[in-house]
TrEMBL record:
Protein's UniProt name: Alkene reductase
SUPFAM superfamilies the UniProt entry points to: FMN-linked oxidoreductases
InterPro entries assigned to the protein according to its UniProt record, in alphabetical order: Aldolase_TIM, OxRdtase_FMN_N, Oye-like
Residue intervals of the NADH:flavin oxidoreductase/NADH oxidase N-terminal domain: 5-330
UniProt source species: Pseudoalteromonas fenneropenaei
Pfam families: Oxidored_FMN
Lineage top rank: taxon: Bacteria
Length: 345
């Protein structure tokens, strides 16, 4: 009884998805040492082209956006050519793919690029780089106004590069405690200039990045992922609610392709949001919403049929089942995900 998932859905006049199942963005740390996507990555994505839309693993917009080993980039011509092989392979299988644009902000590590770590404020996080546990996070430098403006330009440039690489659009990674999300939470943003101190100011960077990318490639091809509920590399602060109330309202006029919930488990509840992040976003945003986090085909159908969101993104089960979509369509059993599957593509 999964027919709901196999209805086509128009995101706008330019992009129609064949089904409601998105492949969630999944960092795999398998690009080469120049952060260029490999042939193995092209094969990995092509096998998953049955998704209505693939969202690529998070892809860094410039060198100081890197916080994990071998995450791909979109700032050199070799990287653009590498991604071109991926997008060609996905398109040859009849699929669609957006690039997820990423800068990790304060969880970047100088080990990868040999420079300063930039963030909204000079507030670090405890901990170490995943998979490289001897690399401790450093205290970042608060970006100057000029540096903030350069970041906005570099997001727009990476979006242009994504289109040159053959992507159907981009998803801005504004979630999970990375740079854009750091501007949106009081725990990471204590600026006293026009980018901090009030909902309007704290939402400014997210909106400037979104608008610059819309100007560069058109609103039909731009999506955004947000984490109003702080849960990863971020402490909760009840004042954040007003920032997201403001931001979601402001996004209404941008006519994005979709808005995507940034969470690992949709059942997580946040007091200051009144419950689940997905329900909060649904109540405050009228456009197409993508839910995610622990869904099975049945629970996704239930959520979509009851109007909680419009499309579902599937993460770990897509790692375990390249043919996730055809298995669901044919009611075949799914292989269970296991962390050991991250070792190979
Ligand atoms: C993720 N997730 C993630 N999110 C994101 O926005 N960009 C990314 O690059 C990644 N990378 C990533 C890697 C791995 C190994 C996991 C498990 C998760 C989060 C992901 O998109 C999704 O929100 C969660 O996995 C929850 O969905 P599932 O797995 O329960 O369907
Ligand atoms: C080296 C791979 C990098 C992957 C980046 C994303 C991390 C994925 C898996 C870790 C799970 C983190 C879960 C955080 C949830 C916190 C809930 C309170």
């Amino acid at each position: 009884m999964t027919a709901t998932l196999f209805q086509a859905v128009a995101l706008n006049d330019s992009i129609t998805l064949e089904n409601r199942i998105l492949m969630a963005p999944l960092t795999r740390c398998m690009a080469d040492d120049n952060l260029v996507p490999t042939d193995a990555m092209a094969a990995y994505y092509a096998k998953r082209a049955g998704a209505g839309l693939i969202i690529s693993e998070a892809t860094i917009i410039r060198p100081d956006g890197q916080g994990y080993p071998n995450t791909p980039g979109l700032f050199t011509s070799a990287q653009i050519q590498g991604w071109r092989k991926v997008t060609d392979a996905v398109h040859a299988e009849g699929g669609k793919i957006f690039a997820q644009l990423w800068h990790v902000g304060r969880v970047a590590h100088p080990h990868f690029f040999g420079g300063e770590v930039l963030a909204p404020s000079a507030i670090g996080v405890e901990g170490t780089v995943p998979r490289m546990r001897d690399l401790h996070y450093v205290t970042p430098k608060a970006a100057s106004l000029d540096e903030v403006q350069q970041l906005v330009k570099d997001y727009a440039k990476a979006a242009e590069n994504a289109i040159e690489a053959g992507f159907d659009g981009v998803e801005i990674h504004g979630a999970n405690g990375y740079l854009i999300d750091q501007f949106l939470h009081y725990a990471a943003n204590q600026r006293e200039d026009s980018y901090g101190g009030s909902p309007e100011n704290m939402a400014r960077f997210a909106l400037e990045v979104t608008d610059a990318i819309i100007d560069a490639i058109g609103h039909e091809r731009v999506a955004l992922r947000l984490s109003p509920g702080a849960y990863f590399n971020m402490e909760q602060d009840a004042r954040d609610r007003a920032v997201f109330d403001y931001l979601l309202q402001a996004l209404q006029s941008r006519q994005l392709a979709y808005l995507h919930v940034g969470i690992f488990d949709d059942e997580m509840r946040f007091d200051y949001l009144g419950g689940r992040v997905s329900d909060y976003m649904r109540a405050h945003y009228q456009g197409t919403l993508v839910g995610v986090g622990g869904f099975t085909p049945d629970s996704a159908v239930q959520a979509i049929d009851s109007g909680r969101f419009d499309l579902v993104a599937i993460g770990r089960p897509f790692i375990a089942n390249a043919d996730y979509v055809s298995k669901v369509r044919n009611a075949e059993p799914l292989v269970s995900y296991d962390d050991s599957m991250l070792a190979t593509l």
